[in-house]
Every structure is written in structure tokens, then in C-alpha cells.
Specification:
It is built from eleven helices and eleven strands. By secondary structure, the chain is α/β, with parallel strands linked by helices. Strands 6-5-4-7-8-11 form a six-stranded mixed sheet, with helices on both faces. It has a three-stranded antiparallel sheet with strand order 1-3-2, with helices on one face. The protein has a two-stranded antiparallel sheet with strand order 9-10. The longest helix has 24 residues. The chain is globular and about 75 Å long. The C terminus is likely disordered.
Length: 304
């Protein structure tokens, strides 16, 4: 069995985010949205521990009489909304100008594991799809939190390789997954070709986007000076540059403009965009990706 990507403390925090998934992705999870109320037409799924703020009407009082602990009953309704997650495994995900930067590829896999765990706790099904110049073999994650082990093993076994080709990936995805749903994309969005047009294609075909833009800190703000040789991690091409403080600042401004273009497109298409460096703590990245409010973040952090 592979080394765990997430520790027990973080998994316990993710448990508390379960019923806030639908607030983060408004209108997206809907088809398989869980209700805390019993009633006709609802299928019982599971129990979870009661947390402050939950509805008392959903408490399993018989279990409380036996165990003296509060558990919440969880139900689901139909139809189900597809949730797919594209995980970028191109070579650039393992590259960084500064060797001191945290491992971006490991960070991406840990974030993918965390978001999938949140979905599994809700008994949603997530299709995990690695990609570089084409789609890789998918892994279907379903069956609740107890089926997280195979997800961990699948993500831990991924290796970075190949070039990015967002246009080809978008074409294959639209062909393989014609039914619209929530599409989570974890990527550095580095491609020699245009990434905006492929993202627009995905939105035009009805997929609602959650674009998570990951980067190493030195990829956005390099600390380089003098004669420098840069090598493309995916093509091997090299570029000779003479850099100073002004050149590095101009590069950072160009990086931010590029990120803003992606954000504008995703938001205009009705999706969501989150961008952060692999240097920030993983739990903060998860809360940002899920778009939790400050109060919700504090409740999750302190175990409310």
C-alpha cells in the first residue's frame, strides 16, 4: 500500500466540510446532493458525527439512546451530477526554477486526494483523470470514505511525464464525457499553445469549471540575476537571458496577467477559479478551493 497522502488530522478536518460542498459549488453537485432530512423519495446513505450547527431533526435518537453520542442521518436524492477531476501530470508539474520550492507535483496529488475525500464522505462519485498531451486511464472513486484507500494508491502511483496539450485533452474529454457536470482541473496551465480556447470549449459543452491554478513560488516570482539559462521541462528547449530586478518584476507582472485571463474566462463561463502557490499550507489551499467563508474555515479548523 502506498504512503498516505493525507494525515489523520487533515482527514478529520475534511469530514467537517462534508455538508458545505454544495455551498462551494453552487448548482453543481446538486444531482447527488445530500439532505439531512428524512422523508419520502430519499435514500438513506450513512451516518456521521453531529457537529455544532447541524439540524437536530436529522439526529438518530435511537443511536443516541444506545451509545450516548450524537450521529446525523444522511440521505441522497436523484438524479446524480457527474463530478470529474483532471489532474495535470505533465513534466512541468515536477519542475521549478528553485530547488527549494515545495514539490508541486506531490502538492497537486495531495490536493486531489483531499477534494476527492470530501466528495466520498458525501457519497458522491468522482472520476479521476490524469492528463498531459492526452487523457490517461481514469480511476472511479465511489462508495464512501471507506473506499479512499484505492484513491490514495492511484494518486500516489502517478508519475510526471510528457508535454501539455490542452486542446487535444479538451477534445478527448468532450468526446469521452458528453454529459455535463462539475469539472475540477488541477494544473499549472503551462502550455506553449493557447489554454483559453480549450477551457472555453469545455464550458461551451456545458461543463461547469473549477480551475485550480497551482504554481511554485519561484515560477511566479523568480529570484534570478545575471546571465541565466532556462530549460523547458517539457520540450528541453533552452533560452539564454540576462536578468535583473526589473526583468524579474516584468515577468511576475506577465504571470499575473496570464492568470487573470484564465480567471476571467472561467468566471465569465459561470465557473470558479482558485490560484495559489505550493508553498501555502495544504489545508488553506483546500479551504480556498472550496471557497469557504472565514467563519466556516474557523469552525472546521477548531473541530466545531
Amino acid at each position: 500500500m502506498a504512503e498516505p497522502l493525507l494525515d489523520r488530522r487533515l482527514l478529520e478536518q475534511l469530514e467537517r466540510l462534508t455538508l458545505r460542498w454544495h455551498k462551494s459549488f453552487r448548482g453543481l453537485v446538486g444531482g447527488r446532493n445530500l439532505s439531512r432530512y428524512s422523508g419520502p423519495g430519499l435514500e438513506f446513505l450513512d451516518h456521521r458525527r453531529f457537529h455544532q450547527g447541524d439540524d437536530l431533526r436529522a439526529v438518530n435518537w435511537r443511536a443516541y439512546l444506545r451509545l450516548e453520542k450524537l450521529f446525523l442521518k444522511m440521505f441522497q436524492t436523484e438524479p446524480r451530477t457527474p463530478i470529474r477531476m483532471l489532474a495535470d501530470i505533465s513534466s512541468s508539474m515536477a519542475a521549478s526554477p528553485d530547488p527549494a520550492d515545495p514539490d508541486k507535483f506531490l502538492y497537486m496529488r495531495r490536493l486531489a486526494a483531499a477534494l476527492t475525500y470530501v466528495a466520498l464522505v458525501r457519497h458522491d462519485t468522482v472520476i479521476l483523470i490524469p492528463f498531459h498531451e492526452r487523457l490517461g486511464d481514469p480511476h472511479v472513486a465511489s462508495g464512501g470514505r471507506h473506499r479512499f484507500g484505492p484513491v490514495n494508491d492511484f494518486l500516489a502511483a502517478l508519475q510526471p511525464a510528457g508535454r501539455s496539450d490542452f486542446l487535444e485533452v479538451a477534445r478527448q474529454f468532450i468526446s469521452n464525457y458528453p454529459r455535463p457536470g462539475l469539472l475540477v482541473i488541477l494544473s499549472d496551465f503551462l502550455d506553449d499553445a493557447d489554454v483559453l480556447k480549450p477551457l472555453q470549449y469545455l464550458a461551451d459543452f456545458g461543463h461547469e469549471l473549477l480551475a485550480v491554478h497551482l504554481y511554485a513560488e519561484s515560477e511566479r516570482a523568480p529570484a534570478l540575476a545575471g546571465e541565466t539559462t532556462l530549460e523547458d521541462a517539457e520540450t528541453g528547449a533552452t533560452l539564454q537571458l540576462a536578468l535583473d530586478g526589473g526583468g524579474c518584476r516584468a515577468y511576475t507582472e506577465a504571470f499575473d496577467r496570464y492568470a487573470s485571463l484564465i480567471e476571467h474566462l472561467v468566471l465569465r463561463a459561470g465557473g470558479r477559479y482558485a490560484a495559489f502557490s505550493s508553498s501555502i499550507p495544504l489545508d488553506e489551499a483546500i479551504f480556498e478551493a472550496l471557497d469557504l467563508t472565514g467563519a466556516e474555515l474557523q469552525r472546521a479548523a477548531r473541530g466545531a
